[in-house]
Amino acid sequence: MEAVQNEKGQISIHTENIFPIIKKFLYSDHEIFLRELVSNAVDATQKLRQLASFGEFGGELGDLKVTVSLDEEAKTITISDNGLGMTADEIKKYINQIAFSGATDFLDKYKDKTDDKGQIIGHFGLGFYSAFMVAERVDIVSKSYRDGSEAVRWTCDGSTEFELSPAERADRGTDIILHIAPDSEEFLNKGRLQGILDKYARFLPVPVEFDEKVVNNTTPIWTKSPADLTDEDYKTFYRELYPMGEEPLFWIHLNVDYPFNLTGILYFPRIKNELRFQREKIQLYSRQVFITDEVKDVVPDFLMMLHGVIDSPDIPLNVSRSFLQSDANVKKINGYITRKVADKLNDLFNADRKAFEEKFDDIGLFIKYGILSDDKFWEKAKNFVLLKNTEGEFATLDEYREKVQANQTDKNDTLVLLYTSDRKQQDAYIESARRRGYDVLLMDNVIDAHFINALEQKLEKVHFQRVDADSLDKLIDKGLNNESVLSEADQTKLKDVFDQVLDNKMLNVSVEAQPVDELPVTITLPEFMRRMKDMSALSGEQSFYGNLPNTYNVVVNANHPLIGKILAEADADSQKSLVKQVYDLALLSQNMLTGSELTAFVKRTVAAL
Fold it and tell me: Which residue stretches belong to region A (predicted)?
């Protein structure tokens, strides 16, 4: 080996302003420096292990590890490994010429011998220069694994000048010594470094020591075969990821090596009836290095509520590994995850229908959201998405159609599916529907307004109506007219009385012939208007419909005895009091009677007893 000579030179870059660019713009978060340098150290260790497996290194591997050391007094952070090490020529190539990448060069040389999981994480090039985000000077002391190699020291103060000289180091490997700059002394804190390592290094494939402790699990369960894992292994790992989380419902183990590499575990959490995207996110790794928990391009939007880990070397990242870039691989991975989730849900449904139904209150939100956002998911999900009625009975879309079509098909041959969004508040309307032999679905999920719209578009001649959106004869119009006990003149007179007493332009009063066992007055918000308002409220955005005032329909039942009594009442004040009473009863049935109006209603009711 040629002896190391003292040497000074210029780093081969295209601009002398590269370091300010690195410090200010290349990495959005300065803590990334530790991830990059530790990842590079792991690379060097993994490369040596592979060379040994190829028969190109015959020495003792020893205890392969990476060590992070903090010297608060000297204001240095040192990242050490006992991996490949570098010669002076390699330092010149991989460090001084920023355009080169040690990892890329290594993979090119050994691509015929290295399998897809070669564990070469990063770029010993630009990644290394992240050190200058926090350091005013960086020293590299390295000794190559090659026989006869001499140790070498490289020093740079953040300018484009470097110095190369002989060094003392007994064993192979590399030390990266960061002399921390005054504006980055927050990193000279043991707790701060421990937090960064916990975030980025917790699953690295080589032991990482800090403060005399190994900080990582080198073989997380997503790197293992599902056949070698128990349910308890998956649950334990979930608790490791989310110590405060509830136990998951079930999980999917991802493992594919063609046409892209992807491993991971996705957990279905218990989320009940809420859209929650922020608390416990899916974590994205690249060969066990944490990259980000912003995975919206990789994971389908409707599965962002899942928890777990995805690991893929084939997801393109920018030089800082911080942002995903949409390309063909990302789209393929997204589609694969959608398919795997759909297949898992379908298997669960077919294997144990009862257990699937018991979980549906938790997983229904995922399935419905998926149907709304992904046509490919809909093609599979339409076979296992369930509808639930007010009796707690579940049915698939086909099963439910068969159940209700004989009695709930209108005169236009459209199947009308009645539903409630609030079983307690709309109980009177539900009971009225039951008396007619109609079934009422429970649609109280946070996205059900959108889900109903989607089903109407996807299913032929199916229409949803909330059970309190109109009179039942209009909700399911079979072309049959009830005979009114009142003449047309009396009906007109009755409408005039209600219009005068209620005196509200936002109320549309109509008199209709209904069965005598229906309420004397019903108040309804038309289905279209109510649904548009529900969807507007869910989106959190202002819309034309969301800003419109509510216009209610007031339906007076011409055949109810109380209505006949109102019409016959000769005293104007008594007639007005009766109108107010039956109208307030209608409001009360919709939970719309509050404040002074409720107090007045109670007083009138007590006085009448």
Answer: 1-321
